[in-house]
Design brief:
The protein has 21 helices and no strands. Among the domains are: about 280-330 and about 335-485, no CATH class; about 490-559, no CATH class. The two termini are about 25 Å apart. It has about 550 residues and is mainly alpha-helical.
Length: about 550
Amino acid sequence: MGRNLLMSSLENASFNIILQILFRCITFVINAWVIRNVGHEVIGIMNVRLLLLESTILFLSREPFNRACLGQKDEFNWNQLINQIWLSVPISCVLSVIFVYIWLHVLPLGHPEHAFQYQFGCWSVAISCILELCSANMALVAQLFCFVKLKVALDALHIFVRSLVFVSIIVYDQSLALFAFSIAQVGSIGTIVVAYYVFFYWYIRSKPLYAKGALKSKFIPDIMLQKLYSNMDDFNFESLWDFFPKYLGSINSTFNKKLSTLTVSFMKQGVVKQLLTEGEKYVMSISPVMSFTEQATYDVVNNLGSLAARFVFRPIEDSSYFYFTQMVSRELPLHKQDQHKIRESCTVLSQVCKTVSSIGLIVLVFGQSYAYTLLKLYGGDTFVASSLPVQLLRSHCLAIVLLAVNGITECYTFATMTSAQLNSYNYLMVFFSISFLLLSYVLTYVLGPVGFIISNCINMFARIMHSIHFISKKYKGTDYEPLKGLYVGKFFLLTLFIAGCMCKFSENKFSRDSLLTHISIGMLCLMCVLLSWAYENRELIVIIYEKVMNKENKKKTID
């Protein structure tokens, strides 16, 4: 493929970050309104129980196939790849039936007045998951062929439709909150699936016209058409039927054995990783550790504390995983691979480690002084009447630092492990998941909801140590130092420490009487911290600036 994978990954990450910030702001406002107007029990059912059902079905049925298929660009047969990704649909159907039964008959609800809406919500979530996987084939093709703006546009459409439907029903009748959530879920996913098929139908029909120079559009500029079709000689899809599974004469020819083995490895890994990722919600749902009101409080604080993860870390991890799978071969030792690619991937890993670690430290320091302020603005005085939300958010800021480092190091580890290493790691993940669930259960009884966060921190620290060991061992005996980026600069740390002290003083002095003064001091301190980071990493800033300017110059040349 004649596409720049690094630039595509960077563009994908940047667009995703901008999109996440823009549309999460909309979600942020909607959630703040819901907290003030809808009962906390309903919020707990929606955000903990129903979203956990969606996460469980999608992660176990989509993630293994997607991760396995992304790393096979030089080895796959397109028909085998499409066949493989479509297996996620029947698997999601089976999982949906199993988990909906568990959610309805095993997990206690405790609120008979919400029983019918809850049942409707469970089946709606299951249907939306199956619908979403019907477009997994096109989502995979879009990612492998670097249709960056398509994914961004469809993500934006998804959030817009979901928010519009949800708010419209809630405004009509607040008692229909669970119905609103369910209908919005199915409606938004259905819109995305249709949009994928419409786009590729148009794209395939228009490709021959573009080759002849006969493609003109009133709505799409010529420069965008050129981007869509340039370097696409290897795009061999000739109709929508090519996106559907085909029997190729035998099982061995229909499915790639190596791809299937890798998928099974990721599937085993997915089970334990899901327990690690959503472990606290499983503990909440299975055991009577917390009421739905407390669960709602924990979830609201957890969502606020995870803003950095959703806005920044997740897009970076997704783009980085795709980039590393394309640059580093799983099976070949480093010295037998293209050294230019290895050098570039090491530089990227180092710089990304430094960036996410710095962001995590900023969140940790400023979160200690602005947790109360943020929660008061978000949920009102009633929400912060008890000290629990503030304690949870401050504790969660520590988890953000570990989450940042774990995300990128584990992303590189999973992208470069061999099938045998993945299988071995599955056993370690089982140990991590069991330890995490037991620790969560015990610490929650001892420390309350804060115990969830502490157990999560311990778990992430253990996973970081394993990833660091793997990466260090992989590059032992070479001149590369990909983990050097974990050491952030001394000047940045000093500035951050001083800023933290000033913000804490401001909280004690001004936060209760003059909220605006407290926020202004924080913004000034944050600006100084960012400037100190930019000064210490000026070489990286210059490189990014030059890449952006070169891209702009190429655009002007094309125009």
